[in-house]
Design brief:
Radius of gyration of chain B: 32 Å
Shape of chain A: elongated
CATH class of the largest domain in chain B: Mainly Beta
Helix content of chain A: 10-25%
Number of helices of chain B: 5
CATH superfamily of the largest domain in chain B: TonB-dependent receptor, beta-barrel domain
Strand content of chain B: over 45%
Oligomer: heterodimer
Order of helices and strands of chain A: HEEEEHEEHEEEE
CATH architecture of the largest domain in chain A: 2-Layer Sandwich
CATH superfamily of the largest domain in chain A: TonB
Structural class of chain A: alpha+beta
Largest interface: A-B, 75 and 93 residues
Largest sheet of chain A: 3 strands, antiparallel
Number of strands of chain B: 49
Distance between the termini of chain A: 34 Å
Strand order of the largest sheet of chain A: 6-5-10
CATH architecture of the largest domain in chain B: Beta Barrel
């Protein structure tokens, strides 16, 4: 088998071509990652755009807003997994206690499963991944509370929660008794191909 | 006093006892670990653990695992009854778990059913106006029977694709040849991703999905008259290091993947054929041949500094080798004596690239790819003839998409390629025109020496504007691409347009129209632009293609139907000059047409089933030069019907069938043969020179084949293994691929496709 004729290349085309492209790429990278901020345009009342509880989509990232004058480099925050959440049983398992999935004999099932529409911005940006909602479902199968335990952004979290709001469930059962339960529902946003 | 001492002792004893009791009560121990999926060791997203003290239902504790499956519980030492559960998994119960001191314990849950209870929200990468497009997932690509889990071979079952026998893995798309396609792996152009044209060079497990375009693609992609294969490789695992090995009848492969940092991962894979290690060379009256050998590798490093910024480095390559010798008494050598002697064949490629994708700004997306590809193609024949070709491509692509609003966007981009083509040859001008292959006699063909290295630069720019109108019912995309080739100072403009009209939420009419100019320097294996064996002034081949289609979604499971009609007007096709003039070895004298109707009914993967039925009716004609007769293109198959189905019998066992029917290929029979004398290397011999009927004037019999595949997977806590069987030609049908003539051309012997051929393999994943 003949070895690839890779090392016998002339160094000049290598150096010229690679050098040109690296300079070009670095210029693009620098231009896109450095953002300018006008501190005078930042107002504190932007927090008022956050919807009220119980539905809590992630706050708008103010660093994405167009800003001027002062140049800073910004390290984007990395998502950190939430700590393990412990629900301590007090015995007796009254119907008012929200149980974990290990404490019920039958999990709730979708009665009406609404599927979110892929947000146009997420599609454009090529955003794929999983949004995980933590949902408390009461003994009638209604959604009591929900929160995003893993988000994707670009409208995917809101799309998943909107779909969840319109979905209905059969109640969880402990033996034959309907009981409230806390479950996690993954919404997988996937771009085919 | 004695009573007092006893009292003090009792008080102290009591206090010590209370202290001990309190110490016991406030010193719980920790039970921690992970709740993971059995086999894959993926975190169980909704996992939770519930424990109760044995014989005491009052003392109970439960905990939910975090997103990485970690849980932690503090309990008093004792014996516990444990229940571990997760949505979509079988419940795991431990009747007795002794917890005396802090312990770590992982629990592995088995999937309960075929898929996890997740809500899948999917969309296509391609724009809604795109015609002639299919996006297939890895699951579909690797489970098409008769493909040996080869993702590129699976594409042959799509509509508009012609196959040339069960061994041939290449794609023949809508009246085009195998060299007319473009292949991209993670945006990096790959010259020819096949081993000997049979097996693809891609490790199927690395592939996330493939976008296949049989036509109508926009100006974002360079020119090509055939199809476009856009392969996306997945990122490596970010949660742990994993290993996979696959051993089957022809090759073995190994891959390893895992996290480098919290936001980056690496995956590496190698494959090598090993029949040459176990089977001795073949030899017989026709000559001898060493067992062919091939190998390939893939490397991908991915870095996701934020959800909207992605970097990756990709390296991919392959090498093939076969050699042997042809006896002077071999049938083909008797009439073409210069073929007798040793032959060697080596080819391969090595590609590297860096991708950068940034969509941090909601209205702007930029992407850049820096790449290098080295393709080589070296062979020798008959002891004297040789051709060593190398093509280097240093390239850079940059694209920018700006969204003015929800309904309007503009995309622009530039591309630059610096080619270094090297040729060292003593060879004849290799025919390309369909009918010319049959008329080739190497002994009498003119041969030329050439030793040449040429540098050329291609510059390209494109723009593509998209609109939505009439309440988003009508979508339009209008764009153009400009290419400049400095080797012959050619500038060419290729406009492209496409439209979609949504009749309802489930029904869409589509149309596209475009010019596609295929530059000759992209084809490896043909020295088209060489100053001696080629023609440095060749113009790009051109296809003007129009497509009209209708798409209908049939139900909520995704069942869909597509019907399309297309017409391609081909011109400036490169044809070998019959006069074999040095420097004018090839001419842009060929023309042709390809038209057809395609029907496609597809069920994307559900819990248990996926499959499709594809039918293509087509007609493809060529003319080698003005005034010559029109003839059927080599790969003209008027009727092709393919049905594919795969069914999961249980979560670990699936089985599939594929049925393929097509009209036989055209071929050119010999009508008579005359004797003549030739002198080769000083020796004079008598040969028979055939006279052929008109090009491709006969057809092979119809081709029918049934393929079967099945796999059984067994899952253990921390690893899994799978045994798979793929049977090509289950019924042993004798399909004719061509005919061999005897020495004086008076008798024919059919060449049959593969007989019943089982392909067995074992895969282990950790």
């Amino acid at each position: 088998m003949k070895a690839p004729d890779f090392l016998s290349l002339k160094p000049l085309p290598w150096a010229l071509s690679l050098g040109t492209h690296v300079v070009f790429l670095l210029a693009v990278l620098w231009a896109s990652r450095v953002q300018t901020i006008n501190l005078y345009d930042v107002t504190l009342d932007s927090a008022s755009t956050v919807p009220s509880a119980p539905y809590m989509p992630p706050q708008e990232d103010i660093w994405q807003k167009p800003m001027l004058r002062r140049t800073v480099k910004i390290a984007l925050p990395k998502p950190t997994p939430p700590p393990a959440q412990v629900v301590s049983g007090q015995g007796g398992h009254g119907t008012g206690t929200v149980r974990s999935v290990a404490e019920v004999s039958q999990l709730p099932q979708f009665k009406t499963k609404m599927e979110p529409v892929y947000p146009e911005g997420a599609k454009r940006a090529g955003i794929e991944g999983v949004v995980i909602l933590q949902v408390d479902i009461d003994a009638t199968g209604a959604v009591m509370n929900m929160s995003v335990v893993q988000g994707l952004g670009s409208g995917c979290d809101e799309a998943a929660m909107e779909a969840m709001k319109q979905s209905t469930f059969t109640p969880a059962l402990a033996g034959t008794d309907p009981v409230p339960v806390r479950i996690r529902i993954p919404y997988r946003f996937k771009i085919n191909g | 006093m004695k009573t007092f001492k006893i009292a003090v002792f009792l008080v102290c004893l009591s206090a010590w006892g209370n202290l001990c009791a309190q110490t016991t009560a406030v010193s719980p121990v920790t039970l921690s670990g992970q709740i993971l999926e059995k086999g894959t060791k993926d975190p169980v997203l909704g996992g939770s653990l519930y424990i109760e003290a044995s014989g005491n239902t009052i003392e109970t504790v439960s905990a939910n695992a975090d997103l990485k499956g970690h849980y932690q519980i503090a309990v008093p030492p004792g014996q516990y009854h444990v229940v571990v559960a997760g949505e979509g998994y079988k419940r795991l119960t431990l009747d007795s778990l002794t917890v005396i001191q802090a312990i770590e314990k992982d629990f592995f849950l088995e999937k309960d059913g075929f898929t996890l209870p997740e809500v899948v929200v999917s969309t296509d990468k391609a724009p809604p106006t795109q015609t002639s497009h299919e996006a297939l997932s890895k699951e579909e690509l690797t489970e098409v029977p008769g493909t040996q889990e080869d993702v590129l071979k699976a594409l042959q079952a799509l509509p508009g694709i012609i196959t040339a026998g069960s061994l041939d893995g290449q794609l023949l798309v809508r009246g085009s040849g195998p060299g007319d396609n473009q292949y991209y792996v993670d945006n990096i152009p790959i010259g020819f991703p096949y081993h000997f044209g049979i097996v693809s060079t891609l490790d199927s497990d690395f592939v996330k999905g493939i976008d296949f375009y049989s036509g109508g693609f926009g100006p974002q992609y360079p020119n090509s008259m055939g199809g476009l294969v856009d392969v996306t490789q997945r990122d490596g695992r970010e949660d742990r290091w994993g290993f996979r090995a696959d051993v089957n009848l022809f090759l073995s492969e190994a891959e390893i993947e895992g996290p480098i940092t919290s936001d980056s991962s690496l995956e590496v894979a190698f494959r090598r054929s090993y029949l040459d290690l176990f089977i001795s060379d073949f030899s017989g009256s026709q000559g001898d041949i060493e067992v062919p050998e091939f190998g390939d590798y893939q490397v991908k490093y991915s870095w996701n500094p934020s959800p909207k910024v992605h970097w990756d480095f990709v390296a991919i390559g392959s090498a093939d080798s076969v050699s042997g010798s042809l006896s002077a008494s071999a049938t083909v050598a008797q009439n073409d004596p210069e073929l007798a002697g040793a032959f060697n064949f080596n080819d391969g490629y090595n590609s590297q690239g860096v991708n950068y994708h940034d969509s941090s700004d909601d209205n702007n997306t930029i992407a850049s790819t820096l790449y290098h590809t080295n393709s080589y193609f070296n062979y020798s024949l008959g002891g004297n003839l040789y051709e060593d070709t190398t093509v280097e491509d240093f390239g850079e692509k940059f694209s920018w998409v700006h969204h003015f609003d929800q309904d309007t966007s503009l995309e622009g981009g530039i591309q630059y390629d610096h080619f270094i083509d090297s040729l060292n040859a003593f060879f004849f001008i290799v025919p390309t025109g369909s009918g010319q292959q049959q008329n080739l006699e190497i002994t009498t063909a003119a041969k030329f020496s050439s030793q040449d290295t040429t540098n050329s630069n291609d510059f390209s720019a494109y723009a593509d504007q998209s609109w939505k109108a009439f309440d988003k019912k009508l979508e339009l995309a209008l764009g153009a691409r400009v290419d400049y080739v400095d080797s012959d100072e050619t500038l060419f403009l290729t406009p492209r347009a496409s439209a979609a009209y949504h009749l309802s939420a489930d029904s869409t009419l589509k149309a596209s129209y475009g010019y596609y100019d295929e530059a000759p320097d992209r084809v490896v294996g043909y020295p088209f632009l060489d100053q001696t064996l080629g023609n440095p002034h060749l113009a790009p081949e051109q296809s003007i293609a129009s497509v009209l289609g209708f798409e209908q979604k049939l139900d909520e499971s995704g069942l869909q139907f597509r019907a399309e009609g297309y017409e391609k007007d081909l011109s400036r096709l490169i044809v070998a000059n019959p006069n074999a003039i040095p420097g004018l070895g090839y001419l842009n004298s060929g023309t042709g047409t390809a038209r057809g109707l395609e029907f496609f009914l597809r069920q994307p993967p559900t819990d248990r089933f996926f499959g499709w039925i594809a039918y293509s009716l087509s007609d493809s004609q060529r003319v080698d030069s003005p005034g010559q007769d029109q003839y059927a293109f080599d790969y003209d198959e008027p009727n092709v019907l393919t049905a594919v189905g795969n069914y999961k019998i249980n979560p670990g066992w699936d089985a599939g069938l594929k049925i393929l029917y097509d009209t036989g290929h055209p071929w050119t029979p010999v009508t008579s043969a005359a004797q003549e004398s030739v002198t080769v290397n000083g020796q004079t011999s008598t040969i028979y020179t055939p006279t052929y009927a008109p090009n491709n004037s006969a057809r092979l019999p119809d081709y029918v084949r049934l393929d079967f595949s099945t796999s059984i997977k067994t899952v253990y806590d921390t690893w899994e293994w799978k045994i798979y069987l793929d049977i090509v030609n289950l019924t042993g049908a004798k399909n004719v691929l061509g005919y061999n003539y005897n020495v004086n051309y008076t008798q024919t012997t059919p060449v049959y496709d593969l007989p019943f051929l089982p392909y067995l393999g074992v895969e282990v994943k950790y």
